[in-house]
Amino acid sequence: MFPLLAAASLVGAAMPSLAADYTLQDLRIAHPHARPTPPGARTGGAYFTVRNAGKAADRLTRVASPAARVVEMHSMTMDGTLMKMRPVAGIDIPAGGQVALGSGGYHVMLTDLARPLVAGDRVPLTLTFERAGTVDIVADVEPAGARGAAHQGAGHGH
């Protein structure tokens, strides 16, 4: 387990210290981030927005990370007052559109974390798209205050 953590730390150390956007062909992955988890937590979430500037739809088909044993894409829906979360095989990214992976809908679920996520940590993720291929990104674990400010700006005026 420790070599895995060391490798994840090295990957994170080589990346810039501020949240970055990533480009893969016509796709732009904006503001990848994660939330801190309580001590001893075994699950966490990662979030980002995928914008498709192309004329063809694409599909996010896989997300992987050395930070967790299991990484799944999930959808969260409300059925009355009951929250339902379930894994999905892929997430469609419409041509000329965008899909936000956030706390209230689609998101990346990190299960069996190597260690709890702490503000300031960096979580390496590998995203695989049906058409565009694969891109490595890093999600910054943002403190609670920054998370709220970043979330409030998401989706407004873009």
3D architecture notes:
With 158 residues, this protein is mostly beta strands. It has a single domain (2-153), classed as PCu(A)C copper chaperone (Immunoglobulin-like, Sandwich), CATH 2.60.40.1890. It has helices spanning 2-13, 144-153; strands spanning 22-24, 27-34, 43-52, 58-64, 68-79, 82-88, 91-93, 98-101, 107-113, 122-129, 133-141. Strands 1, 2, 3, 4, 5, 6, 7, 8, 9, 10 and 11 form an eleven-stranded mixed sheet that branches. Strand 1 (22-24) and strand 2 (27-34) form a beta hairpin. It is globular, with a radius of gyration of 15 Å. The protein starts with a helix and ends in a 5-residue tail after the last helix. The relative contact order is 0.27. Mean pLDDT is 84; it is low at 1-17 and 147-158.
Quick structural summary:
With about 160 residues, the chain is mostly beta strands.
Key phrases:
158 residues, mainly beta, Immunoglobulin-like, 11-stranded mixed beta sheet, 49% strand, disordered N terminus, disordered C terminus
Unreliable stretches: 1-17, 147-158
Under the CATH scheme, the architecture is Sandwich
Percent helix, as a range, is: 10-25%
What is the domain total for the residues? 1
| Radius of gyration, in angstroms, nearest whole number | 15 Å
- CATH evolutionary superfamily: PCu(A)C copper chaperone
What is the number of helices? 2
Bin the strand percentage: over 45%
Order of helices and strands: HEEEEEEEEEEEH
Structural class: mainly beta
Number of strands: 11
CATH class assignment: Mainly Beta
Mean pLDDT: 84
Shape: globular
What is the fold-level CATH name, i.e. the topology?
Immunoglobulin-like
Largest sheet: 11 strands, mixed
Distance between the termini: 41 Å
